Structure formats: structure tokens, C-alpha cells
Amino acid sequence: MNSFDDSLVRTLTERVVHQAGQPGEGHLDSIIRTEVARYSEALIGEGGWGDADEARITREVASSVSGLGPLQKFLDDPDIEEIWINAPDAIFVARLGVSQKVDVELSAEEVRDLVERMLRPTGRRVDVSQPFVDASLADGSRVHVVIPDITKSHWSINIRKFSKRVRNLSDLVEREVLSGEAADFLTQAVRSGRTILVSGATQAGKTTMLQTLLREAPPAERVVSVEETFELDLAIPDHVGLQCRGPSLEGTGEVTLRRLVKEALRMRPDRIVVGEVREAEALDLLIALNSGLPGACTIHARSGPDALGKLCTLPLLAGGNIDRSFVAPTVASVIDLVVHVELLSTGARQVREIVSPTGVDGSGDVTSHAIFTRREGKLEKVSQSWED
Questions:
Q1: CATH code that applies to domain 72-160
Q2: What pLDDT, in 10s, does the model give residues 139-159?
Q3: In whole angstroms, how far apart are CA 321 and each of 89, 229, 259, 293?
Q4: What is the helix (H) or strand (E) element at residue 56, kind and residue range?
Q5: Going along 183-326, which residue ranges are E strands?
Q6: Fewer beta carbons below 10 Å: N end or C end of the chain?
């Protein structure tokens, strides 16, 4: 939009908000259309704008009032995976895995207003006493905010979207993320109750891979998932999702991921899912899996074997009485498969390898072997099963 359009949208937004009382009420669409039409006639005469211009201004005002203003078009673009703000005049997006700066500038006040609008429905807050916040938007996107003086000068915002176009493993096969043979193998693994760890770097597609795997679970299976902030979109008939909660202003009421894992076990799960294992909750997950309950989770790692090694280290954060001599054999026995995904420089994602633990060596490290691995760009099967 040009500067005239920007000013016009701000003016109309103020009028709509004043008329509606609180944005988001049921009659909001009608108020927007009425105000745009009234302003059109007042500015340009009885003829008003053309239909295309009026429709465009109406969309911009609707986005400003009930959406995320200048950012809404990026949220609506299916090719954009993430939006981040380093400063009001430094806004970037990742389009099909490739980062680029966009021609949008906001004021510091507009940035703060956007954050307030995003957090208001969630009940979460960000302030000097709590300078970080994670929350989920209404469309399932995840927002992360950091404010000064943790950041140097400006509010830092990341909005991570999740693909609506990838629903199952066959969609990933079409995108050449993995082969059809590997997809069939993983489908059988999920349906037979195997525990799967999805590993990879940031933005490699771990959450998407986890979602597509879990959609292959038997329809009668009850799945309980726990996350820091809701991200998983599981099309499972019998599914309960739990998320963490930060402390109140009085410092009470916090619900941690460790607590959620323990509570999930009381909810009669057939499979337990941890969105991402980062810290001491790894111990609680291993204890749950060691009881015979199948599960799934994601973890940051450079390879499948590294993911197994990291899963042996994280439980040690739970306290000095946790011994690696317990953890490593447990990891080797309860994890059936590791699916390692990676982000290429082109922005494409792919499964690099699928590995399976084979035991613990004399140094106390978990050993593994590859079932599928990439050779000359192709994901090839190199072992018959996780039991070979």
C-alpha cells in the first residue's frame, strides 16, 4: 500500500474499533463494510471507489482490526513458513525455506500493539519480570517474543507457521522428503506401536514429520501429547493435548513439561507424545516408555546417532542421583527408530537417515545401525528391519 492507503486504513480502523466497542464481536464484518462504503462516498463522491479498490481496502481494514495488520498477508501466504521482526524496520520471512527481508516497516508502538493482540486471547504476558513468552495463535502458529533489556533495543518476534498442505506421509513422498518405501516402513512402525524419535536442526521439519507419523496411528488408539506451547495438529479421533503454563504475577501456578508428562500417564494413553525434549523431562519420558508405553517426540540433533547420545545426556539434568548407567540402556531398549530430517541450502527438507539402536558399547554409549540412508541424493534401504 502507498502512504495514502496506510493513513486511510489507520483512520478506518479507528472508526471501526470505536463502532464495535471491542474488535472480534460478531457484527464486526458488517461494521467494516459499512464504514468503508461511508468513507468512500465521503471522499470521492457518490460513485465511491471501484469494486476492486473497495474490496482491497476492506480486506486491509479487516486485517488491521481482527488480524495482524501488515503481517496478515504473510500469515495468509501458504509459501511463507516463518515471520520474524528484529526491529520495526527489519522484518523478514522464510519463503519455502529461504529467508528474505520484506518491504514492510512498522513503528515501535505498532509492534507492541501486535504483540498485545496476539497474546490477549492466550492469557499469557510479556513484561520486565517475564521478558520471554511463547504462545499459540488462533490458526495454530506459534509466536515467541523477547523484549529489552534482554534484547538490545527492540522487541524481537518470531511467528512460526505450520504447513496446512502437508497432512500425511504421502504428501512428504510427493515433495521428495522421503521415499515411498521409507514411508511404508514408517507407517508399519507406527501402526505396530514402535517408539519413534524425530531429530534434526531448527526449521528442518521435525514437527511436520512428527505430525505425519502420528496420523498413521490406529484410529482406536488414545494419544496424549504434551508441549511447551501447542504446535501439534493431530487429526486423531481420541487425542488430548496439554501445554505448559508459566507462573502468575505472584510466582504461583506454573505447570512444567515434567509435570505434564507425569499427568499424561494418568490419562489412560495408548501412546504418549512429547512435542520436543529439551531438558530434564527426558527422564520422565524414558520412565514412561520403560513401562511399555509407546511414544514419540522430537529432539535437536545433528544426526540420528547424535540424537540417541543427547537423549542419554538430558536426563542427567534431573539431578545428581541420575546415573548414565541406567539411562543409556533404557534409551537403547525403549527407542525403536530415529528419523533424522535436515534443511538443505535450497530450502528443501529431506529425511537423511532412519536408524535404530542396537545396544550399549563398552564405553556406555548407545550403538545404532542405519535402516535407510541417503546415497547420491536418494534415500535407500540398507537394512531389512530395526531388528537386523
A1: 3.30.450.370
A2: 888 899 999 999 999 999 999
A3: 50, 30, 19, 24
A4: helix 51-66
A5: 196-200, 222-227, 238-243, 271-274, 295-300
A6: C
